Amino acid sequence: MGQFLRLSSSLLAAFAVVAITTPLYASDCIICDRDVWLSSQTKDCFLDNVDRYQAEMDKSKLPYITMDFSKCPGIEKRGLIELPTNPQATQKSSFILDRGSLRCLYRLVSEHSDSFDPSVEFRLDQQCPDNVQ
Amino acid sequence: MTDSDPKLGPRLQGLRLAAAANILNNLRMSPGGFLAALANTATAAGIFFAVIQYNNQVEAGRTERTMDYISKWEDGNYLARYEALQAKIFGILKKRTPEEIQFLKVSPNETRRLAEENMGRRALDMMGTDGPKDVEQLFYFFNKISICVNYSLCSKKATNVYFRDTISSFWLYFKWYALEKQRAGYTQYGNEIENYLKSTQQTNLATP
User: Which residues are CB-contacts of A41 (< 8 A; sequence separation ≥ 6)?
Assistant: First the structure.
């Protein structure tokens, strides 16, 4: 009996190690972004538009949305990290999210109390574990 | 209008007659002049064909260099790396749901590019720890052959036939990798590949 309990606890511990070290994928969405970077400008833009994103998903009846922050006011001037030698190598400013990830990102952004400058990376695959569709 | 056209003034009619006489004089040629003209024509033709032959030789040299790259591609483990990566991409493409396919169908090209980028990232993750090394080896090879074409050292025609679709497809899914490298300070990373693809005006193989 004791041996069985030892074996069970060992198996449980091994399972826990695997569960902790295996990345938790936010969703099964193949085409979606798993990392989102937000600066203070893009964060404001995200919060201003999150309802519109939801509404667009409802309208299209497809649970995906492309958030394009490059068109947000003030983004061209500030908020994107640019290398002077190659203007193309800017920080990513467009992301595809599914409905669950959008909801989770909204929660993460709302809960984030530190500065968003220069930018904050949200790892949706790890920070939204309860989001599997 | 004829020479006796009353509308023409006598001065203009005189000029026209002089011009016609000049043309007739030029057509008359002595036998020596004829031979000289023939020799000149033959020389010009000789130079013309020599230039063509030289160009053919130069192009043959370029084709040979492209063939060397094809051998390296097939024998140097690059093809195996590419096929492994491609298998991952195909696996990912197969996993797309009908909703995802529909979303991409109704989305603009920029969204499709984003999706391809994300699928490339997933493929790289699936390659495990060797993934970045394999991708960098492919970048290295494609960069070299792009430089070879961009600076007219390789045959563009032969390279296009053999490599263009492969490089174009790779670029679709891994352009983001080059941009991340550029952000990390390798400011020219992947630029030659992009220049090569732009020069071929290859339309992107958009994911359906």
Answer: A69, A72, A74, A75, A78, A79
